[in-house]
Design brief:
Number of strands: 0
Strand content: under 5%
Helix content: 55-70%
Shape: elongated
Distance between the termini: 94 Å
Order of helices and strands: HHH
Radius of gyration: 29 Å
Structural class: mainly alpha
Length: 78
């Protein structure tokens, strides 16, 4: 009964400027900068991991299953 009364008789709360979406507020601008920074770091780290994996795949493809280098097709065998 107390829970129902608390739910139905409560006053609406006011949200902060960030939740209301005030674009000129310092809080909103700081949060936007933080989000862009986190995205930049994440993309940089994942890009580095992908580049490393691509390098490993490239190296593995240059050798046969016995570890011998595979000759390039551009080289003259003579």
């Amino acid at each position: 009964m107390a829970l129902a009364a608390a739910l139905f008789l409560s006053l609406p709360s006011a949200a902060c400027t960030t939740c209301m979406g005030a674009p000129d507020a310092a809080q909103t601008q700081g949060m936007n900068a933080a989000i862009l920074t986190m995205l930049g770091v994440t993309v940089t780290v994942l890009g580095g991991v992908g580049f490393a994996i691509g390098g490993f795949v490239y190296r593995v493809q240059r050798y046969d299953e016995y570890g011998n280098p595979i000759a390039d097709h551009d080289e003259d065998p003579a």
